Amino acid sequence: MHRQDLHTALKMLEDQGLRRRRRTLESPQGAHVLVDGKPYIAFASNDYLGLAGHPELIEATQKAVLEWGVGGGASHLVSGHFGAHDKLEDALARFVGQDDTLLFSNGYMANLGTVTALVGRGDAIFADKLNHASLNDACVLSRAEFRRFQHNDISALARLLETTPARTKLIVADAVYSMDGDVAPIREMVALSDRHDAWLLLDDAHGFGVLGPNGRGSLLANDVRSPRAIYMATLGKAAGVAGAFVAGNAELIEWLVQRARTYIYTTAQPPMLAATLLKSLELIEREEWRRERLHEVINQLKAGLSGLPWSLMPSDTPIQPLVIGDNGDALRVTEALRDMGLWVPAIRPPTVPPGTARLRISLSAAHVSEDIDKLCAALQQLAR
């Protein structure tokens, strides 16, 4: 965009109710935060298990800093691969029931690196229309044929797979959809990938730590295994720290070490974070009460919002979208809630389809019943 056009474009975003603004936290992440000098009950983060400020993670970081220092210093393949990284990769592979894993700095880089390492010109990708932006960008950058199917439409995906001439095929999908809160038909997708000899990349950013036995993720929640399944999860949401990993069979992971550009050409994640994540994994596995608490607050919210003119989308995950519709109305509701000390973000196009602007209510095991009651009462009041 030309420099002189920026002012006009920004003004247009403002007029359409689409201009985004950052809020500054002045406290640790949690269910209760200080933002721009004001206290809020927060329904705005992906800290689903309430681990981001956990004292055991803070203590683990302090010990790790003394052992490993602060910075990674170099890429993994030069001199930035530490013992803490090795231990975490081994632990993650065991945790999600895969042969091996590879750490990435974040989920965006994990998706970009994996997709572009596996497919290119002459290959074909089949993607759910509601996939995360990182998957869409990865598909475009790969230069493979990029075909999209209607959300969770297994029949449409099957037809695409049956008619493609491509030898290398890749299915990509979110396991839990970040703006709708619903889940992918994973068993059916695995069956299709096996039938058509296609890779299946599942982005479980919002399922890892929350779904499955002991929070082991969406693949194990569906009790499916396949050598064609590639599992990606992030470590800055339910795990409470930062980073991401890709898990799969050993040859796949070795190929990513050799060819994933977002792994090869960037400085390694600080080893102190990897050491902290080992403690986070321990808490995720051990403290089942956190997932039980999540189910309690999800059910409490659904009951408390019944009868509203706005509809909650069908979701049994901590992501509970309340569809308002109009961009301006969604902004007015979120601002009114903010005046009441409740932080609930408004999500607008292009993140969601036009006409479906919504409040994205994110729940956490750290929320108490009184927090949910206050939010429900405020929304009922605003609706009247």
Task: Characterise the protein shown here.
The protein is an alpha/beta fold and 384 residues long. The chain has two domains: 17-49 and 288-383, Aspartate Aminotransferase, domain 1, CATH 3.90.1150.10; 55-286, 3-Layer(aba) Sandwich (Aspartate Aminotransferase, domain 2), CATH 3.40.640. Helix content is 42%, strand content 17%. It is built from 15 helices and 14 strands. It has helices spanning 6-15, 55-68, 76-80, 83-96, 107-118, 133-142, 154-163, 186-195, 218-221, 250-259, 261-264, 271-286, 289-304, 327-339, 369-383; strands spanning 32-35, 38-42, 100-104, 124-128, 145-149, 169-174, 199-203, 229-234, 244-248, 311-312, 319-325, 342-343, 346-347, 357-362. A seven-stranded mixed beta sheet has the order 3-9-8-7-6-4-5, sandwiched between helices. Strands 10-11-14-13 form a four-stranded antiparallel beta sheet, with helices on one face. A hairpin with a 6-residue loop joins strand 10 (311-312) and strand 11. It is globular and about 60 Å long. The termini are far apart.
